[in-house]
Amino acid sequence: MNGIQIETMHQMLAIVTLLLGALLIAVIYNAYRIVRQPTLLLFIYGLFTLIVGITFADLVSIFTPDEFIVLWSAVFSRIVVIFGLCVMAYGILRG
Question: CA–CA separation, 57 vs 79, rounded Å?
Fold first, then answer.
């Protein structure tokens, strides 16, 4: 496999990750509607930012071939992932 095939596979897996993340968020939101516990809402917000952060660099590489932007999108992606994990931890510790 050459570099282009591997990059294409990363991009396809990023899209699959987004779809599965949206499904998981929908299931958790359905549970929130039943129990009305605010901790689940914070957990959903954290999970959303975590999923977007995980896939952000791969999604940026779909839309732009510029190496500089792709490199900095990976850095921004890590920052968003850390923020999402912090929101999830806050929601769990608060509950």
Answer: 11
**How far is it, in rounded angstroms, from Cα 11 to Cα 17?**
10
What is the C-alpha separation between 37 and 28, in angstroms, rounded? 11
Q: Under 8 Å CB-to-CB from 41, ≥6 apart: which residues?
A: 32, 91
- pTM of the predicted protein model: 0.85
Q: What is the pLDDT of residues 19-67, one digit of tens each?
A: 999 999 999 999 999 999 988 999 999 999 999 999 998 899 888 888 8
Say if residues 56 and 76 touch (Cβ distance below 8 Å).
Answer: yes
Nearest to 24 by CA among 52, 44, 4, 49: 44
